[in-house]
Amino acid sequence: MREGSLVDVARADTVDDVRDRELSRLIERRAESNPDPDELEPGYVESVRRHNACRREESRQSWADFHARQAASLRQTLERLIGEHERKAMNLRKGTTWPQQIR
């Protein structure tokens, strides 16, 4: 295995830091062997980093929205189940139903 081909995740601050370093290495290797005209433009690497940061933020927001919707859905389901069990318990305490009749 080549030296430097493994990413030391234990030392990395975040997965995003690892991704940014890997992107920089890829860009540097490509630029050394066969530079892409876009890579010669001033600010190209920074533009790629900004684009990736924007994508990460959009992804973070999407996941936050997903978890908020899941929490609301679970809360609604649990409240409905709690109400159903409270109703059954009340009917049993009143003696209006027998356990076999509760469904």
Can you put this structure into words, describing what you see?
The mean pLDDT is 82. This protein is 68% helix and 0% strand. The longest helix is centred in the last third of the chain and has 51 residues, at 44-94. The chain has two helices and no strands. With 103 residues, the chain is mostly helical.
Summarize the structure.
The protein is mainly α and 103 residues long. It has helices spanning 15-33, 44-94.
Give the overall shape, derived from the CA principal axes: rod-shaped
Order of helices and strands: HH
Number of distinct beta strands: 0
> Mean of residue pLDDT?
82
Q: How many strands, what sense, and barrel or not for the largest sheet?
A: none
Please give the alpha-carbon distance between the first and last residues: 64 Å
Class per helix and strand makeup: mainly alpha
Query: Helix count?
Result: 2
- How helical, in percent, are the residues? 55-70%
Write down the Rg. Answer: 28 Å
**Percentage of residues in DSSP E strands:** under 5%
Name the poorly predicted regions. none
